[in-house]
Write a structure and sequence with these properties.
This protein has helices at residues 13-23, 30-37, 43-52, 65-73, 76-102, 135-146, 150-158, 163-168, 180-198; strands at residues 2-7, 26-29, 109-112, 127-132, 172-175. By secondary structure, it is an alpha/beta fold. The protein has a 5-stranded parallel beta sheet, with helices on both faces. Helix 2 (30-37) crosses helix 5 and helix 6 packs across helix 7.
């Protein structure tokens, strides 16, 4: 079974994903795939340079993620242009990785994708887990983690689907507003439920 894992920025998706791995799940990260498709010399990176100019490159020729982030979070059209270029490449790579893993004897594969719904990637998974967090805590964590201004942080949060919209499409929800131990316990409980009941049942229609 493939469980899609998503949630807003700075909601704690990575901690939840790591907790699933500790339980025995196999993880495929869309963020890592996104980095892979824009490796130096890749066709996708060349398309980004054509679209946004050489200023998105570092002196060594790799993608300058900070410059790219500044461009897309302040301009919805630029973000859409980026998605049109990168999402097909990420989708192809994700399909290949997930297909290969489905042929191996694992009970649960977790596909962590921050933009699972925004990219229309929920069709790749059997069930969806959304990680939610108190909005004030989300903002606080984002400010601390990325060392950006409050205006930039709010801009990045607003660039994604509202948390409530994601919850409406979820099969499971974990609230990460409490302690790490509470979240880890919630993940462990869900893992055992999925392995014992859902993994042997029918997939999501």
């Amino acid at each position: 079974m493939i469980l899609g894992l998503t949630g807003g920025i700075a909601s704690g998706k990575s901690f939840v994903a790591d907790s699933f791995v500790e339980c025995g799940a196999i993880l495929v990260s869309a963020d890592l795939l996104a980095r892979e498709v824009v490796n130096q010399g890749s066709p996708t990176l060349a398309k980004l340079v054509d679209a946004f100019g050489v200023e998105i490159l570092t002196a060594g020729g790799s993608l300058n993620r900070e410059v790219m982030a500044q461009k897309i979070f302040s301009d919805p059209l630029a973000r859409h242009r980026l998605e049109l270029i990168t999402h097909p490449a990420i989708a192809h790579l994700a399909e290949c990785r997930l297909m290969a893993l489905k042929n191996l004897p694992h009970d649960l594969i977790v596909y962590e994708a921050p933009l699972l719904f925004e990219a229309g990637a929920e069709s790749r998974v059997d069930q969806v887990l959304v990680v939610v967090i108190d909005p004030a805590l989300q903002l606080e964590r984002l400010l601390t983690r990325d060392e950006i201004s409050e205006a930039e942080a709010k801009q990045r949060i607003a660039a994604q689907w509202p948390q409530a919209d994601k919850v409406q499409k979820a099969d499971f929800v974990i609230d990460n507003s409490g302690s790490l131990e509470q979240t880890r316990h919630a993940v462990t409980s869900l893992y055992h439920y999925l392995v014992e009941t859902v993994c042997s049942g029918p997939s999501r229609p």
